[in-house]
Amino acid sequence: MPLREIKNGPKVIGIKQVKKAISKGLAKKVYIASDAEPHVIGPIKDLCRENNVEFEIAGSMEVLGDICGIDVGSAAVALLNE
Q1: What is the distance between the terminal CA atoms of the chain, rounded to a whole angstrom?
Q2: Burial group, residue 17, by CB count within 10 angstroms (0-12, 13-18, 19+)
Q3: Most buried one in 11, 14, 20, 50, CB count within 10 A?
Q4: Under a CB-based contact definition with an 8 Å cutoff, are residues 18 and 12 in contact?
Q5: pLDDT tens digits for 49-81?
Q6: Can you give the pLDDT at residue 1?
Q7: pLDDT tens digit string along 1-24?
């Protein structure tokens, strides 16, 4: 997982924001936590497939949250087009 890209690039954090970014065509890649609940990440994967957005299963929710500089875990992070 390219930590620098997530840490320094433009992004949105969290399921709702990631869904919005994908739907609006703003997301270029989505990182999904490996330990997120299937019913939570399933719709994100489907949206990525429908909108031809690359997604990658990444580290844990805690790791994604840490990389993003937040104090809680995150199930998904979307890197945005610049």
Answers
A1: 19
A2: middle
A3: 11
A4: yes
A5: 999 999 999 889 999 999 898 999 999 999 999
A6: 47
A7: 456 778 888 999 999 999 999 999
Which amino acid is residue 49, in one-letter code? Answer: R
The encoded tokens of residue 14 equal 């969290």
Q: Residue 39: which CATH number?
A: 3.30.1330.30
Exposed, middle or buried by CB within 10 Å (0-12, 13-18, 19+), for 82? exposed
Domain count, the chain: 1
The token duo for 38 is 């299937």
68 vs 76: CA distance, rounded Å: 11
